[in-house]
Design a protein that fits this description.
By secondary structure, this protein is of the alpha/beta class. The protein has a single domain, classed as 3-Layer(aba) Sandwich (Rossmann fold), CATH 3.40.50.1820. 35% of the residues lie in helices and 27% in strands. An eight-stranded mixed β-sheet has the order 1-2-4-3-5-6-7-8, with helices on both faces. Strands 9-10 form a two-stranded antiparallel sheet. Helix 2 packs across helix 3 and helix 3 packs across helix 4. The radius of gyration is 16 Å and the shape is globular. The two termini are 22 Å apart. The mean pLDDT is 97.
Length: 238
């Protein structure tokens, strides 16, 4: 496997992607963006990019905050994330810059792009689907946030969407889950929601252990959700 960091731009802001590829594969192939949780790009997302490369994709851990901007506490993470929650147009612009960068890579088939995201990143990939950008064939949200962007009329959503959700997640309630389903249906999206019982937020992160905040790793949901993603991407990026 070949891995490298590569800078890209959103306007004047420099962002840093981590790219993983299988060197045994030749020619263009589908790419999958990995959108980070609220702390910024980390070993967690880079590891997911590498696992995606093992599946035959170009795995690209993207950077929403800018090169070197990372949080080291819940307070710092919240300060980094909140401007994007307040300005969803900025969020869309930032993730579309990452999409444009992915399409520019010589090994990437620009008509077959997927995206996965975790927590805040789950919201980001749903916003990528909501953008109706060309080339985006499928997005997967792992324990993501569901709030609609409310930045103008929603175009039909052409990307398939898979939402992998802990039913007891305090940050995305059952009522919000139903509202997301209604939003996706209204936008004519091909959507699925897999809700895991007795499961809360951040269930894919082995380091998540704050039950008082509804943030706990769940091995069963982690394994089930990853397999669901594998099956979904095989269909969406075929």
């Amino acid at each position: 496997m070949h891995t490298q960091y590569q800078d890209y731009k959103d306007g004047d802001l420099t962002c840093e992607a981590y790219i993983a590829t299988d060197e045994n594969k030749k020619g263009k192939r589908p790419a999958v963006l990995v959108s980070h949780a609220w702390g910024g790009q980390s070993d967690f997302e880079r590891g997911k990019a590498e696992k995606l490369a093992q599946l035959g994709y170009v795995g690209i851990a993207i950077d929403l905050y800018g090169k070197g901007k990372r949080g080291n506490s819940m307070e710092e993470n919240a300060k980094l994330m909140q401007p994007f929650m307040d300005d969803r147009a900025m969020l869309r612009k930032r993730i579309l810059a990452a999409l444009s960068f992915a399409k520019s890579l010589p090994e990437v088939d620009g008509d077959k792009i997927g995206a996965i995201g975790f927590c805040f990143g789950g919201l980001c990939v749903l916003d990528l689907a909501r953008s109706a950008a060309a080339g985006v064939q499928g997005v997967v949200s792992f324990h993501g946030l569901f709030h609609a962007p409310n930045i103008g009329e929603q175009k039909p959503i052409t990307a398939k969407a898979l939402i992998l959700h802990g039913y007891d997640d305090p940050m995305a309630t059952p009522e919000q889950m139903v509202a997301l389903a209604a939003e996706m249906t209204k936008a004519s999206a091909d959507w699925q929601i897999h809700a895991y019982g007795n499961t809360v937020h951040a269930f894919t992160n082995p380091e998540a252990n704050m039950p008082e905040n509804g943030i706990v790793y769940c091995e069963k949901a982690d394994k089930r959700s990853w397999q669901a993603m594998v099956n979904f991407l095989a269909e969406a990026l075929a």
